[in-house]
Fold this sequence. Notes:
about 325 residues; Rossmann fold; globular
Amino acid sequence: MITIQRILFPTDFSRCANQAFVQAVQLAKRHSAELHVLRVYVPYEDHTSLLTVVPAAPEVRPGATVLTPPMLQVLEQQQAQTLRITQNVVRDISIGPVIIDYAREHEVELIVMGTHGRRGIGHLFLGSVAEEIVRFASCPVFTIRETMEPHRAGVFRKILVPVDFSKHSEQAVRYAKELAILYGAELQVLHIVEEQLHPALYATGRSSVFEFMPEIETTSVREIERMLMESGGPEVQAEIHIREGRAARDIVKFAESHASDLIVIATHGLTGIEHLLLGSVAEKIVRFSRVPVFTVKPFGTSLLKGPEVHHDASLGPHS
């Protein structure tokens, strides 16, 4: 069972943030959770930065109100005027660490935030606050990409959970099952077989790893069935899909082509040289996916409650 008592919503007052605020309010209302609304004010920030002051933004000083007229309108539309809301403005030189520290100090159990999905040179120079939070936060992070048509709050019919058969993905499966029960959704369990064929093998006329090792698909299906059974939690309807390709790219493509409403994925929490060399599939999905992404970790704060839940703190953020 998923239990949430405190949700953190960082905002920059942008259209992107306003779309994510709808989801944050819906979750807080559903779980009777306290909603923390946080604005990190960085003096002299460049106009192209991720958190840009817009004309409609309220005064940015400690103690100032953070709720804007559009946000108050969301509360009214969601009939959430009685929601417990804590507002904070923090002045600092860097956004990401403030959000991460605030979440830890206030025992936040879930961070909900928008992501602009920057790509190319803009992403290279500016980085992404959302990806930084996903990498370093010790609690689950729910990111919502800005879209032309906002995602309907709390409407998830198909939940995609990519797995790689690690302990990390077992935790993601358990979360996905609980979220499926919560929203009345079905699961799409996806495993991407990442295998590069040597160029010399193309001379045989076969270009797929499934042609050389047909047992991979059967073995993968059997392992996913085991994972669904042994991960605990409720029984849910689940489709199993095995694909060959590149994990981040093809997970995003699958979500778009199979009408997925939410992606639930584990992040290994790699830092330092490991992250530099390997990157993070979860962070890439957060960057490129048009579908909301719910990232979880097998360490830190867990939303799962119950006797079957095993949260391994020994894995830590460097596992």
